[in-house]
Design brief:
The complex is a heterodimer of chains A (136) and B (315). With 136 residues, chain A is α+β, with helices and mostly antiparallel strands. Chain A has three helices and six strands; from the N terminus they run H-H-E-E-E-H-E-E-E. Chain A has a six-stranded mixed sheet with strand order 5-3-2-1-4-6. In chain A, strand 1 and strand 2 form a beta hairpin. In chain A, 35% of the residues are buried. Chain B has four helices and ten strands, in the order αβααβββββββββα. In chain B, strands 1, 2, 3, 4, 5, 6, 7, 8, 9 and 10 form a ten-stranded antiparallel sheet that branches. Classes of the chains: A alpha+beta (136), B alpha+beta (315). Chains A and B meet through helix 1, helix 2, strand 1 and helix 3 of A and helix 2, helix 3 and helix 4 of B.
Chain lengths: 136, 315
């Protein structure tokens, strides 16, 4: 019985896995999947704004030249409900960003995976079925 | 109202789960059932029943837990598998999302409860999928979708559906009015309450509105809201602007607001269909969603389209 259920649910996963993923807007229209970037630098300022947040950071290359990048995140509302506030990411914090660069070649990228310099997650999500941060 | 309509209304009303609730909510100062507060409709239960669960209207508790675990794992945006396009499509880390982690407390396998197969009775030949919006490279904001333009979120309603974050709504009641503040793109629906002594009709048929034109009335402890006068751009589930929508709000427990809606549009569906979402009380406040002000991405998407054109022209 358990196996049968696992089979049914497994098949369900396959069916839905192909469904499109949604953010507020289509990231593929803005960023280039052929241009992955890895940025390491310090936070200049954070705009916790809607529809999506932006982290501004300075990235220093091997020659010491500093380039300013803008990194796109998500809506800040869910983060606020989890206790994140404007002080969560102070100026000067070292972060690492895995993302994809803007199609027009400007220094913008999506924050596909942002961590602190030591690899720790920047913000902790709510994807744990045992906790429901948003419902009483 | 003629006898046939009344009989039909009674049959439908008696058939809804919410109508069978024994809970008697507190009253507002003017005597309405008190539905005020901040509510969330977050859930991972799908709108339509997955095809392979065709004969299964309800999960057992054990099945629900397993479905939740698999769905949460699949949704987890921290995943990096599937190639660059899929990776980019997941946009950003999972912490930004709030898709929920539970199926609805009724353990139904779909939000659609009628027809009994849990599927929307789409008319053959009626177009499926989300509204077209990507037919050509965008020449301006008008060529992008409504949510990208900060006009209306597709689940903001009416009818209201869960989405991947900000599934929060505040209800405020006043004599003669029922207000729903929607967090996504911060729309406020102001619904006039009508009755025998105050029968404000719908606006003229020539006037079409983004969220339609709503009128509410109480049937016992249930608020019934009828909405018409939609425009031809929102097209909920590919319905036309002639869609008629009936929503029912019933507080069935101190922290539960049972929300049901029935969609009727013969041009898109073979018969009316009904969905049910138990909304749960949650902590406020509703947060502002000032969308146009921070929509840097619109510039980014249009610049992206120009870059694509240059690339295609070999420049």
């Amino acid at each position: 019985m358990r196996n049968k259920l696992a089979m049914v649910l497994g098949a369900a996963s396959l069916l839905v896995a192909a469904a499109p993923v949604w953010a507020h807007h289509a990231f593929a229209a803005e960023f280039d999947a052929q241009k992955p970037v890895k940025l390491r630098g310090t936070v200049v300022k954070v705009e916790f704004i809607n529809p999506h947040s932006w982290i501004h950071m300075d990235v220093k290359d091997a020659d010491g030249k500093v380039t300013r990048w803008m990194v796109e995140g998500g809506s800040p509302n869910a983060l606020f409900r989890r206790g994140v506030n404007k002080d969560a990411l102070p100026q000067g914090t070292e972060i690492s960003v895995d993302g994809y660069q803007a199609k027009d070649g400007s220094n913008r990228a999506n924050g596909r995976d942002i961590t602190f310099a030591d690899g720790k997650k920047l913000f902790v999500g709510g994807s744990n079925p045992d906790e429901q941060p948003n419902a009483k | 109202m003629n006898g046939k309509v009344i009989a039909l209304a009674i049959v439908f009303f008696a058939g809804t789960v919410a109508a069978q609730s024994k809970y008697n909510p507190p009253r507002t100062p003017d005597g309405q059932p008190d539905l005020q507060g901040v509510w969330t409709n977050v859930t991972i239960t799908p709108l339509e029943r997955p095809a392979n669960l065709a004969d299964k209207a309800f999960f057992t508790q054990a099945e629900a837990r397993q479905y939740e675990k698999e769905t949460v794992d699949r949704n987890n945006a921290d995943r990096r598998d599937g190639g660059a396009q899929a990776d980019l499509g997941r946009a950003y880390n999972d912490a930004w999302y709030d898709r929920g982690t539970r199926v609805v407390e009724t353990l139904r396998t779909s939000l659609v409860i009628d027809p009994p197969d849990g599927r929307i009775p789409r008319k053959a030949g009626a177009p499926a999928g989300p509204p077209a919006g990507f037919n050509r490279p965008p020449e301006g904001p008008e060529d992008r979708s409504l949510p990208e333009r900060c006009i209306l979120w597709p689940t903001a309603g009416p009818p209201m559906m869960p989405s991947f974050y900000n599934n929060n709504y505040q209800i405020v009641q006043a004599p003669g009015y029922f207000l729903i503040l929607v967090e996504m793109i911060h729309d406020a629906r102001i619904i006039p309450l009508v009755g025998p002594l105050d029968n404000r009709p719908h606006v003229d048929a020539s006037i079409r509105q983004w969220m339609g034109d709503s009128r509410g009335h109480w049937e016992g402890n249930t608020l019934v809201v009828e909405t018409t006068n939609f425009n031809d751009k929102t097209r909920f589930q590919r319905a036309s602007q002639s869609m008629k929508l009936v929503e029912r709000f019933t507080r069935t427990a101190p922290d539960t607001l049972m929300y049901e809606f029935t969609v009727d549009d013969p041009s898109a569906f073979t018969k009316p269909w009904t969905a049910q979402i138990p909304m749960k009380r949650t902590e406020g406040p509703i947060l502002e969603y000032a969308c146009n002000e921070g929509n840097y991405a619109m510039e980014g998407m249009l610049a992206g389209a120009r870059a694509d054109e240059k690339k295609a022209a070999g420049r």
